[in-house]
Amino acid sequence: ELKENKIASKQKELSRILDETRINLKNEGYNSKQLEIQIQKVYEQYKDKPHFIIENNKYNDLEKIIGKLKKSVERVKVTIKEDEKEIRNNVFSIFLEQLRHKVDTSVLVPILKDYLNKQDKLEYNKVFNNHYYYELLELVENGGNYLKLGEPKKITS
């Protein structure tokens, strides 16, 4: 009976750890339905040997499981959309700050919004290497006219 209590207590601890793992991965944007199914499989696999997960300082089973879950469970698109929105807002703020001294904000804001909406995927490295900045500067100088942007310039001699 004592042994049964001990195993039941360890199974409860196993369940708690796996629940915590599921919640963390769900918060990272992984599909919660798939996580639930996969975590249940892990529980079934480890319920008779829970110490391999409970004693995660001694065994790396939990670490391996988390790695496998991250590879096998798909991430939900919603969080990707939220990330893109957050990046867009950050980039907007950066450029507003950088360009508001050069251009009136009543002109800058619509051009900036329009420009950012036309970008497929915003990347921070293009912010930091000034790629977007120079395109925006050129746009602002052209009064928001995209046709002139990146157009090959005719060389007349």
UniProtKB/TrEMBL annotation:
Keywords: Plasmid. It holds the Pfam family Borrelia_orfA. InterPro entries: Borrelia_plasmid_OrfA. This is Uncharacterized protein. It comes from Borrelia hermsii MTW. The lineage of its organism: Bacteria, Pseudomonadati, Spirochaetota, Spirochaetia, Spirochaetales.
